[in-house]
């Protein structure tokens, strides 16, 4: 997706749908319903992370139109797969990661955006606009753009979970 109007429309839908989630979380009954419908693991992530992030992003949007969902990137790619196909979830993430590597090779910046796919996946309006087939699940998304900053060094990462068994 590359058109500003289309990305602005998506931003409005994100703000609207996340407002609904944030509101739901302030109501104990609605919270219990989402606990049941989301399952224990997703509910924990929603409660400890997503709701706060959405609240903060929506506040920024209402203050001055700031986009804390897609950072006003000029391009967004969505990755989706046929629910009936084997490993469709892994495939979508692999393709997304390859797109990131391709972006780097072209001098572009990219970030995986996990806040967008669940909203698009559940929205009849957005699915129709983007031509997502009925049986497909939107798995992940990527924003792309020309980076404003160039880093000369990256952060040193320790490999936390590599265990060598000899
Ligand atoms: C699956 C996944 C989903 C992500 N979703 C978002 C997002 O919705 N919004 C965002 O600002 N960053 C998102 N990120 C980027 C991370 O916040 C983080 O910047 C990135 O993984 C780099 O990690 P680091 O900060 O540890 O270097 C996502 C990253 C991954 C791997």
Structure summarized in a few sentences:
This protein is an alpha+beta fold and 166 residues long.
Describe this structure in words.
GO terms for molecular function: oxidoreductase activity. Its cofactor is FMN. Belongs to the nitroreductase family. Pfam families: Nitroreductase. InterPro entries: Nitroreductase (IPR029479), Nitroreductase-like (IPR000415). The protein has 166 residues and is α+β, with helices and mostly antiparallel strands. It has two domains: 4-64; 75-145, NADH Oxidase. The chain has six helices and three strands. The chain has a three-stranded antiparallel sheet. Helix 1 (4-25) packs across helix 3 and helix 2 (28-38) packs across helix 3 (40-64). The radius of gyration is 18 Å and the shape is globular. 16% of the residues are buried. Bound molecules: flavin mononucleotide. Flavin mononucleotide binds next to strand 2.
What features would you highlight for this structure?
166 residues; NADH Oxidase; 6 helices; 54% helix; binds flavin mononucleotide; oxidoreductase activity; Nitroreductase; FMN; Nitroreductase-like; Nitroreductase family protein
């Amino acid at each position: 997706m590359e058109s500003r109007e289309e990305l602005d429309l998506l931003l409005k839908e994100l703000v609207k749908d996340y407002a609904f989630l944030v509101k739901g979380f302030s109501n104990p009954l609605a919270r219990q319903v989402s606990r049941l419908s989301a399952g224990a693991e997703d509910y924990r992530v929603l409660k400890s992370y997503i709701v706060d992030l959405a609240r903060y992003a929506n506040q920024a949007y209402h203050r001055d139109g700031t986009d804390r969902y897609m950072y006003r990137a000029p391009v967004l790619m969505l990755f989706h797969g046929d629910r009936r196909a084997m490993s469709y979830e892994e495939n979508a993430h692999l393709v997304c990661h390859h797109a990131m590597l391709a972006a780097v090779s072209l001098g572009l910046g990219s970030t995986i955006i996990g806040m967008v796919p669940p909203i698009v996946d559940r929205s009849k309006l957005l699915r129709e606009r983007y031509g997502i087939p009925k049986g497909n699940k939107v798995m992940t998304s990527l924003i792309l753009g020309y980076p404003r900053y160039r880093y000369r060094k990256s952060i040193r990462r320790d490999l936390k979970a590599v265990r060598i068994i000899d």
